[in-house]
Amino acid sequence: MSITIALSKGRIYEETLPLLAAAGITVAEDPEKSRKLIFPTNQPDVRVVLVRASDVPVYVQYGGADLGVSGLDSLIEHGGQGLYQPLDLHIAQCRVSVAVRAGFDYEAAVQQGARLKIATKYTTIAREFFAQKGVHVDMVKLYGSMELAPLTGMADAIVDLVSTGSTLKANNLVEVERIMDISSRLVVNQAALKIKQAKLRPIIDAFAGAITQD
Ligand code: PRT
Ligand code: MG
């Protein structure tokens, strides 16, 4: 019975490497330098697959992978069905925020009960947030370069991930509200957890022991 671990390239892969190492797992080849999608590890029965960040919960839900590492943002947008979420790994940390063009009076627009046009990839998070605030919104779903939407007049505001804030600054946008803090979570296929218990438990425990709190 083999184990498949779903990760995404970039920061999640990089920041998961030390956790894998704690579980005695090392990836044989550097995925950042390869076009392959499946990577063997030093353990013959463990392999890593690389998918889009937002597809990690999908692969784990449907058993394409037994476990994976997913940002809370992707997890909320996915819905979390069929996923056991045992650990906050405290990696790939950032926040989801509302940002507007410099000079746009967001507070006044909210106070006046204006209907806001929001561009975002995170429609579930944004919808919930503005519903709680009692702000009426029209949602424009985008898949990237959200920063462009307010600059072109397509939206009043964006809901996006912010880490250092330099992307917003470079595009003359201002963060006006923080919606939630984000980190990555370990997600496990619920059926696999039962069937492959003996193999998965030691990996989960090793990850738990290797988490470094901020
Ligand atoms: O493939 P897909 O489009 O689904 O995901 P992705 O391309 O966003 O994946 P990736 O690898 O960029 O991000 C994976 C996960 O890392 C996200 O789901 C978050 O949980 C987490 N994370 C942490 C971030 C950031 N920090 C981050 N800064 N994801 C993206 N960003 C982007 C942000 O979208 C914005 O464009 O970086 C920019 C802002 O950064 P600053 O430092 O300029 O503020
Ligand atoms: Mg990205």
TrEMBL record:
Catalytic reactions of this protein: 1-(5-phospho-beta-D-ribosyl)-ATP + diphosphate = 5-phospho-alpha-D-ribose 1-diphosphate + ATP
Domains (record comment): Lacks the C-terminal regulatory region which is replaced by HisZ.
Pfam families attached to this UniProt entry: HisG
Enzyme class: transferase
One Gene Ontology MF term: ATP phosphoribosyltransferase activity
Assembly behavior: Heteromultimer composed of HisG and HisZ subunits.
Record PROSITE patterns: ATP_P_PHORIBOSYLTR (PS01316)
Lineage of producing organism: Bacteria, Pseudomonadati, Pseudomonadota, Betaproteobacteria, Burkholderiales
Keyword Glycosyltransferase found: yes
Similarity comment: Belongs to the ATP phosphoribosyltransferase family. Short subfamily.
Recorded metabolic or biological pathway in which this protein acts: Amino-acid biosynthesis; L-histidine biosynthesis; L-histidine from 5-phospho-alpha-D-ribose 1-diphosphate: step 1/9
Keywords, in A-Z order: Amino-acid biosynthesis, ATP-binding, Cytoplasm, Glycosyltransferase, Histidine biosynthesis, Nucleotide-binding, Transferase
EC number(s) per entry: 2.4.2.17
Protein name per the record: ATP phosphoribosyltransferase
